Amino acid sequence: MRSIVKGSVGTIVGETTPTAFKFLISKEVGRGTYIKAKGDGREWILAQIEDIKRSNTAYTVNQLNDAARNYDSREMMIAESRVIGVESNGKLRLPTSPARPGESVFLADEKLIKATLGLSKGDMYIGMLKGYDIRVEMDANTLVQKHCSVLAKTGSGKSYTAAVILEELLDRKVALLVIDPHGEYASMKEPNNVGDFSKYKVKPRGYDITVYTPGEMAMNPRADRPFRFNSLNLSAREVAKMIPNESSSSGQLGLLYEAISALRAETDAYTLEDIIEQVVRSNSKVKWNLVGQLESLLELGLFSGTATPCDELLRPGRAAVIDMTGIIPELQAMIVARLLTDIFEARKRRLISPGMVVVEEAHNYIPERGTGNAASTNIVRTIAAEGRKFGLGLMIISQRPARVDKNVISQCNTQIIMRVTNPNDLKALSKGLEGMTTDLEEEIKRLPAGVAMLVSNEIERPITVNIRPRKSRHGGVSTEIVSREKAKASSVQPARALEKRSRPQSPESSGNEKPVRSKKSQSSGGLLKKVFGRA
Ligand SMILES: Nc1ncnc2c1ncn2[C@@H]1O[C@H](COP(=O)(O)OP(=O)(O)OP(=O)(O)O)[C@@H](O)[C@H]1O
Predict the structure, then answer these.
(1) In the predicted model, what is the mean pLDDT of residues 513-530?
(2) Which of 61, 403, 481, 521 is 20 to 30 A removed from 259 (C-alpha atoms)?
(3) Cβ-contact 124, 140 below 8 angstroms
């Protein structure tokens, strides 16, 4: 056997192929380490250690080999390595012939890793390659245009990582619209004060964030402004989108179309109140159910006051955060449906800036078939399929990959995967990702918080990244349950009331009874109005 070459970490042994080789380890290396060996053309082949096996001929399965006196000298460590490729003129290719047994293996240097993996093509700094001092940079334009997803189990650092990407996009003057079900993104206004900033060379700062609430301002201390829709001349389709699917029968929808056509024939300008009055005038038996739903819509306050203009929501270098805290899921999906339809239409007509729509807890807004229904599914699918043409990108964030619409996920060119352990979610990831191996699946199960696997057409193979500290303050903090028992008890009451009252009518209702409008609800809007409010 050849003597060990200085600086090498091992020698190639056994059978090799253009895509894999094994080497006998002479210096400590670990799984995931990037290594290099000379190919036949004397160019460097970059490979990564996938697995390490240890054996010792002195210890066989059947008996100890007493003839072997020096047990330590008989121990062997074999590293199984997967070839990533050979870099030539900025392009990656597989070596034409397999690496030669007997060749020395070295640790790969930073330059080779960056060039071969394609890590320095971008301008967005999201973190460091795990185990290395190598910055991972992604291309902002590609990420926005070709969409992106962040998928991981809860507590793994999903929203933290999403915010890191949003910071980079805001630094590059991208306009962002964030659908934020839990009010986690308002804290981006403030600079971060926890993290190893010097190691990652990050400077804390706050961003230009405006938080909107579709509810009442007084109920959401984070909100800067109310979010309101225009109630003038609503089309039947627009109104229908805001009414829960399961409770609006075809008879009621027909009634809605009739009422709005009659109004259009009479006047140039009508409001939601006018639609309600018109429906009341109908002779239909099912009208009261529809009236109930329309009145609930009116009471939410979403259609009162000044409508929020679309061009205010997408502004370069700023993020508009729609904070959905306190709004029931069904209504959230309807708000998202209408909002994104307006944004997409305005963008198609070039009336607003290009930008990116970020959908947190995406399984609620675009549920996979069989796992639920949401009014917002179609428009999010449309943006995923056509947004690129019109400069509207999409970022999908979810803790339940298996419950998110596969059509949308498959349109995301960049996938950021953090720790996932649920077997259904892992299966969904495996199905949706090219090149997913059982080894990668195992790795995903074991990723620590704050470490992400980046899969993208822009990089040559999935890489693991230590996500950099945030520049802005993180807002996704878990609530302690035990020590806050009292606070929890006092907060249960309004939440329940909210859910109960915001449903237009009970499922048992026949649809023929006139809904009771209490004096209080007519004058001040009652509890519903208190919770959701008017502008
Ligand atoms: N790159 C990171 N650097 C430092 N801390 C991190 C990093 N990523 C995550 N964390 C920490 O891990 C915790 C969980 O992160 P985060 O809130 O983003 O999780 P999540 O997956 O979004 O959870 P949830 O689904 O509950 O919102 C946070 O307290 C955060 O401070």
Answers:
(1) 34
(2) 521
(3) yes
- ipTM, two decimals: 0.96
CATH number where 210 lies:
3.40.50.300
Domain range enclosing 99: 8-117
DSSP label at residue 467: E
Which residues form the pocket of ligand 1, taking CB atoms under 6 Å from any ligand atom? 152, 154-160, 195, 399, 449-450, 467, 469, 474, 476
Ligand 1 center–CA 162 separation, angstroms: 10
As given in the structure block, the two tokens for residue 361 are 């807890």
Question: Is residue 273 a part of any domain in this protein?
Answer: no
Averaged over 411-434, what is the pLDDT?
A: 89
Directed axis angle between helix 438-445 and helix 423-432, to 10°? 140
User: How far is residue 147's CA from residue 408's CA, in Å, rounded to a whole number?
Assistant: 9
Total structural domains within the chain: 2
Q: Average pLDDT in the 187-200 region?
A: 92
Give the integer Cα–Cα distance in Å for 278 and 262. 8
Q: How many CB atoms lie within 10 A of CB 58?
A: 17
**Nearest residue to 261 (alpha-carbon basis) of 283, 242, 286, 233:** 233
How far apart CA 276 and CA 461 sit, in angstroms, is: 57
Whether the predicted pLDDT of 242 surpasses 80: no
69 plus 173 within the same structural domain:
no
Instruction: State how far the Cα of 477 lies from the Cα of 163, in Å rounded to an integer.
Output: 14
Q: At 35, is the secondary structure helix, strand, or coil?
A: strand
Which residues make beta-bridge pairs with 414?
148, 456
Q: Is the pTM of this model over 0.90?
A: no
Instruction: Tell me the backbone φ, ψ of residue 95, rounded to 5 degrees.
Output: -60, 145
